[in-house]
Amino acid sequence: MKNDHFSSLNPQLQQKLVRLGIRSELELILHLPLRYEDETRLYPIRDIPDGKTGQVQVEGVIIHCEVITRSRRQLVCQVKDASGILFIRFLHFYPSQVKAYSIGARVRVLGEARTGFFGAEMVHPKCRIVHEESPLADTLTPVYPITAGVTQTALAKLIQQALSRGHSREYMAETLPEAILQHYQLLGFRESIALLHQPPPDITIDLLQSRTHPAWRRIKFDELLAQQLSMRMHYRQRRSYRAPALQERNHLTHVLLATLAFELTVAQKKVLAEIKSDLSTTSPMQRLLQGDVGSGKTIVAALAALQAIENDYQVAVMAPTEILAEQHYQKFLSWFAPLGVTVAWLSGSQKKKQRDLELNQIAAGHAMLVVGTHALFQEQVRFFRLGLVIVDEQHRFGVHQRLALREKGSEPNWLPHQLMMSATPIPRTLSMSYYADLDVSVIDQLPPGRSPVVTKLIDESRRSEVIARVREACQAGKQAYWVCPLIEESEALQLKTAVETYEFLSQTFPDLKINLVHGRLNAQDKSAIMSAFSQGEVQLLVATTVIEVGVDVPNACLMVIEHAERMGLSQLHQLRGRIGRGSEAGICVLLYQKPLSQIARERLRIIFEHSDGFEIARQDLKLRGPGEFLGTRQSGIPMLRFADLQQDMDLLEAARTVAETLLRDYPEAAQRHLQRWLGDKNAYLRV
Ligand code: ADP
Ligand code: MG
Q1: Catalytic activity, per the record (predicted)?
Q2: Can you give 579-646 as a three-state secondary structure string?
């Protein structure tokens, strides 16, 4: 669409429009109103509804106008019609306004009225001079998202022009087959667009404002459909690569299962069956394994790994932090060494000699399982025959990193199977939309015998009681974490706080064995401290949030989190998940400092009231919206501008089904639909 009218606009204007995401005539047309103003009617001033009833328009004559200084300089005018007087007030104004609103001038005023000091008043209304015969608008006035340098009026005009030109253009043609329009009772595309830009006079404004009008529903459906199409196409694309078929052999897996001290939960068995069946085909698995903290994802990963190893394929296990990677390494080693499976270890801080040794083992195919951090992505890492990649806490890795590992496949058109694990449960609406390019398995059950963690919210001023509690617990043979506050602005400051906390607690508890773990320690020290803690040689572990992910020390049953009000919900949930892993009931003390912001108060309430990770995630999503929730995944995935996953669940379900139908039966329509909504933004995520 290079030769469309957009490119003939002046370049400065084009640049400004690009800031609004508008790069073509079509994108001008798809730039839909935020809301509408009703300038089709006039209210008598006496009948103006009070309070939050939305905007109303009145017309009258200025009978008084002056600049006054009441707490600050402001322009106050009185407008009179046949029924009463309205005060209008401007806190920012130009000298030209003072001049224009002179006594006798007729004005049309649009705004939200409320009862002020003098009676009905509007602050900063839209206000313009009119004549007695100035006609009223005959349609609702759309209000568009704008940017500096482009006014409402200018943008509205550009859109109108684009609309009239676009009317006959190919890019406005219906993309959906008639049968689908009928079945889902969808309004036509062109019709919907026209209606939203130029609503007819008789329309119910509420249906437009709440975006429940069929025209809005059509647009939201289209947007969701484009997202589904894009994600499903990439899914299919990846499926078209070849992967080794890793048959179920069940030699080693059965031996491992027999040595475990526990039996798999029903949920673990279910997800394992899904994974096993994926692995046995020649299409690369791309599965996301979700399960709340402590639901037992690691053993599932180990059993999946064994299926690859039994077929003489190597497995890479990646974790986002050294502590977690090290812990996985120890765990896998303890499970796999007795089976005669060699496990290799790669980390960034490893000595060169050790590293070379491991690299050789991997390249020669002696090491069948490789555990590591980001170090696994490095170029020197050559696998002999990589069959499966397991990524723990997948949301911590960027898209590019995962991509790099893919390149480790030996032949072209070849991809290893991939299992991604996440302890941040993803609400269903999100996993249906933003994760539609993956298969999802959920462990929806915790192993038996877990006692729920009791959460206590305690004001910082009652710190001494908490200290007494910690001493008691440790003296009774239990172990505890003391988590230092998160200081986002500065890592150095965070470290300083952690060291100070450690010193303070060492003085407070001269009788306890205390240690400190933080992100700046080298890997060896970190792992020495963690293993001392897991062997019970350390009673109280002071820690920064490095322990947030994955750490598993069942005997630790008390956790104190300082400045809990600074932490995000998923972080709090993850931290809290470190305790209550053994049979002992866990206690999590959230120390907070007042004053609490609205959002902090809300977060603390949610974490206090809920222990189910999915419920917490749902609430978190409501609090923050999908953008932040998705984190790194956001880059590259088509985000939604119009559809609202809470409100439009039914449309999402429909879009999912229709996407499959289009890809199967109407590939050309699918292509056109994608082109309209995503254009070249469709070239994303290939992992
Ligand atoms: P997460 O899903 O958070 O990664 P882990 O895999 O670390 O959880 O498991 C948490 C703890 O639960 C570990 O100590 C693990 O050995 C134990 N566990 C896993 N599955 C079961 C089970 N079916 N029954 C009892 N304990 C289990
Ligand atoms: Mg884990």
Answers
A1: Couples ATP hydrolysis with the unwinding of duplex DNA by translocating in the 3'-5' direction; ATP + H2O = ADP + phosphate + H(+)
A2: CCCCCCCCEEEEEECCCCCHHHHHHHHHHHHCCCHHHHHHHHHHHHHHHHHHHHHHCCCCCCCCCCCC
Q: Residues 39, 42, 47, CA angle at the centre, nearest 5°?
A: 130
The phi-psi region of residue 294 (left if phi > 0; otherwise alpha if psi is between -120 and 50; otherwise beta) is left
List the domain range (segments joined by +) for residue 499. 454-610
CB-ligand 1 contact for 423 (6 Å cutoff): yes
Can you tell me whether residue 65 is helix, strand or coil?
Answer: strand
Report pLDDT digits (tens) over 644-663. 888 899 999 999 999 999 99
Q: Which atom of ligand 1 is nearest to the CA of 449?
A: 25
Give the β-pairing of 141-143 and 85-90: unpaired
Residues paired with residue 614 on neighbouring β-strands, in sequence order: none
- Kindly state whether residues 350 and 432 are assigned to the same domain: yes
Neighbours of 557 (CB within 10 A): 24
Residue 366 scores a pLDDT above 50? yes
User: How far apart, in whole angstroms, are the C-alpha atoms of residue 253 and residue 617?
Assistant: 33
Contact 454, 558 (CB under 8 A): no
Tell which atom from ligand 1 comes closest to the C-alpha of 298: 6
Mean predicted confidence (pLDDT) in 330-350: 92
**pLDDT score, position 195:** 95
626 in a structural domain = no
What whole-number distance in Å separates Cα of residue 162 and Cα of residue 470? 68
Alpha-carbon gap, residue 443 to 293, rounded angstroms: 10
The whole-number average pLDDT for the span 593-622 is 91
Instruction: Identify the residue whose C-alpha is closest to ligand 1 atom 5.
Output: 296
123 and 82 within one domain: yes
405 and 505 belong to one structural domain = no
Q: Which ligand is nearest to the CA of 298?
A: 1
Same domain? 45 vs 70: yes
Residues 423 and 463 occupy one common structural domain? no
